[in-house]
Amino acid sequence: MTYHPKSDFMSVMMERGFLADCTDYQGLDEALSQGVVPAYIGYDATAQSLHVGHLLNIMMLRWLQKTGHKPITLMGGGTTKVGDPSFRSDERPLLGPEQIDANIKGMQQVFDRYLAYGDAPTDAIMLNNAEWLDGLNYLDFLRDIGRHFSVNRMLAFESVKSRLDREQSLSFLEFNYMILQAYDFLELNRRYGCLLQMGGSDQWGNIVNGIDLTRRVLDQEIYGLTSPLLTTSDGRKMGKSAGGAVWLNADMLSPYEFWQFWRNTTDADTGRFLKLYTELPTDECDRLGSLAGSEINEGKIILANEVTTLLHGAEAAATAEATAREVFEQGGVGDDLPTLELSSSDIADGISIVQVIVRAGLAKSGKEAKRLIAENGARMNDAPLTNAGLMLDAGALAEPIKLSAGKKRHALVKIGG
Asked: For the domain that residue 322 is a member of, what is the CATH number?
């Protein structure tokens, strides 16, 4: 039997493809229909910026707020000190408090673009689990919380089992992580009346633990909801590109490169991504996603513009589109392309094209740059680049040059002012 939700939030989640699983569809739907539901997603502060892999869940929080509920962004200032072992083959490097605080500041920039923070009933709040985890007394915690956890059950969780099956070590520190995350849900319920935890489907075990603990300790009815772990139609993990993580902070990835990432979506993913990452009506997403041949490019440009507008603003999206048109359609050199500025001392004795390709970010190593040239994948000012021994001097760089790796990645190289 297909479940027909009453609440706007559940309708959006089901209609747009956000929903993988829920601990109690009907109970949660009922709660969402009766008043403001505070809901949280946890983010460990392991980097200075969130990346595209986080965007699906940020959109869930945005829809939660748009449908009249209260988002809580929980920063893992405490849990980051331990590290989430879920589906990892090794232990995370441990970070110090200063680095964790700096990372949280960087991540806050992105949340501010998607959510309205404040004191009103549906305004988002940002919390840090260090608030309750830093002051925990270990013996009290073991007695009051630890006794509710069965090690047999914890060993059965997929995230732990997959690590043990491969005979990879799982430290006691990491084993504690799932208890701490469960405790977060308990504290959020106790302090802020939080009724729902959301996350990717790899977090299912951790979410269920939190619900179970809160029921046992506080006798409270709370809920969990997960989103699918997205892979692109060609089987890659969403958010990973050839150049590495697709960061959301503009100082770590330019708005143009962000726009370009979405413009390069495969045909098969366009309609699905429009539903998940934009706020266009679903029938319009379906229409754009079903366009055939070269017309699907219209859908990809709309996708890139809509997603970039949400994160970086309409002006950045328009500039990125104009730059792309100039680069691709007119073969020109767009001012907004990623730019490598070389100093006069860099080119005093000439600089090799291989080095320039690496420094411009179009290849990770000299070896990769040489292979790119050997396989006819490199171009300079739109002409094939075939000589891996080419040296550039001040004369060659009198005007900015455009380097390309394949059809979709470009950079400008010029002498700094």
From this structure: 1.10.240.10
Based on the fold, state whether residues 81 and 162 are members of the same structural domain: yes
Ramachandran assignment for 83, one of left (phi > 0), alpha (psi -120 to 50 degrees), beta (any other): left
- Cα distance between residue 30 and residue 354, in whole Å: 61
The domain boundary residue, chosen from 227, 246, 269:
227
pLDDT band at 9 (very low <50, low <70, confident <90, very high): very high
Terminal Cα-to-Cα distance of the chain (whole angstroms): 67
Distance CA 275, CA 291 (A): 15
Contacts of 183 (CB under 8 A, 6+ apart): 132, 133, 141, 145, 210, 213
Structural domains counted in the chain: 3
Q: Is 248 within the bounds of a domain? A: no
330 close to 304: Cβ distance less than 8 angstroms: no
Percent of the chain with pLDDT over 70: 92
Whichever domain contains 343, its CATH number is 3.10.290.10
Alpha-carbon gap, residue 338 to 413, rounded angstroms: 9
User: Percentage of residues in the chain with pLDDT exceeding 90?
Assistant: 53
In degrees to the nearest 10, what's the CA dihedral of 210, 212, 216, 217?
0
State residue 202's pLDDT score. Answer: 87
Same domain as 372, residue 323: no
Residue 74 belongs to some domain of the structure: yes
Residue 182 · residue 204 · CB < 8 Å:
no
With H, G, I as helix, E, B as strand and everything else as coil, classify residue 410. strand
One-letter amino acid of 190: R
Domain that holds residue 323: 254-328
Cβ distance 205 to 22 under 8 Å?
no
Which residues are paired to 225 by β-bridges? Answer: 22, 198
Q: Are residues 51 and 189 in the same domain?
A: yes
**Mean pLDDT (the chain, rounded):** 87
Pair type for strands 378-380 and 391-392: unpaired
- Dihedral sign from CA coordinates of 304, 234, 239, 336: negative
CA 79 to chain centre: 19
What is the C-alpha to C-alpha distance for residues 231 and 307, in angstroms, rounded to an integer? 18
Question: Which token pair is 4?
Answer: 């027909």
CA distance 383 to 333: 13
